[in-house]
Amino acid sequence: MTDRALDHRLRLALRDEVVVSHSRRAYNREGKLGNFGWRYHCRRRQIGSIRLPSGRIVVGCPSMLDLREAFRVSVAPGTYTVWATQAIGDDTRNAFVTLQFGERSVARWEVASTLETKEHVLPVQSMEGFGVDSGQAWIMDALTAEFLLTEEGRAQTEVEMIGSELEHASVAPPLSPPHTETLMVVESGMGDGVYNCYWGFDADNAPVCLVLDFNLAGESSGKTRSLFGFLGSLCDWWK
Question: Any residues with CB less than 8 A from the CB of 83 and at least 6 apart, and which?
Fold first, then answer.
């Protein structure tokens, strides 16, 4: 995938309403390998908020108790809105999950690398992803990740969410203070796999968003559709 194609794909996560395509090679019922494609109508909706007292973010898989290093980039401590771009079909799946830090436009994307990564900035085509084998991913503050390494923290997560089914797009386990609202668990698209995260920066290199890409859009996105974008284009044409 080219940088331009990736930029187009990640911007789907910021639209209110889009249609995306997804294709993959798989075996059919007769055992023959072939290419299969789907088209999804996606809508973006707010699924909650997360408190980041340290401003450092950790992403991983709950069932593996995957507590990776925090991302290199940090944000100002605060509470931030979390959005899900959801593919709607026979069931609803998260195509993207986005933490929103600002309202300015994204000028460039960068792979979200961790502190343990040797290179400070990775090419946007790099695979610096996190593994999922439970169909779920968790997002948390780095201080909460440290808490989950303690006996008390492990006990709380095991009781509240490990191995549980999500009824909706996300769940925020009720951790004890001061870690309340610092952890969110989200469904990971089609389920298990390795997924990348991307920082979106504005023209002044300030982080605008963090996008978890669950690969539902595939390498080639379908025709996008945003009602507000369409009306804006119509007004520009009328002028």
Answer: 13, 44, 45, 46, 47, 97, 98, 100
Residues forming beta bridges with residue 199, ordered by sequence position:
110, 210
87 close to 187: Cβ distance less than 8 angstroms? no
**Confidence at residue 211, expressed as pLDDT on a 0 to 100 scale:** 97
For 61, other C-beta atoms within 10 Å of its C-beta total: 22
Cα–Cα distance measured from residue 66 to residue 61, given in angstroms and rounded to the nearest whole number: 5
**pLDDT, tens digit, for every residue of 23-49?**
655 555 566 666 656 677 888 999 999
The radius of gyration computed from the CA coordinates of the chain, to the nearest angstrom, equals 18
CA distance linking residue 49 with residue 129, whole number of Å:
23
In sequence order, the β-bridge partners of residue 65 are none
Q: Can the peptide bond before residue 178 be classed as cis, meaning omega within 30 degrees of 0? A: yes
**Coil, helix or strand at residue 82:** strand
Q: Which residues of 88-119 are buried (b: 16+ CB within 10 A; e: fewer)?
A: eeeeebbbbbbbbbbeeebeebbbbbbeebee
Q: How far is CA 152 from CA 147, 155, 179, in A?
A: 8, 5, 12
User: What's the Cα-to-Cα distance from 176 to each of 39, 149, 194, rounded to whole Å?
Assistant: 42, 14, 30
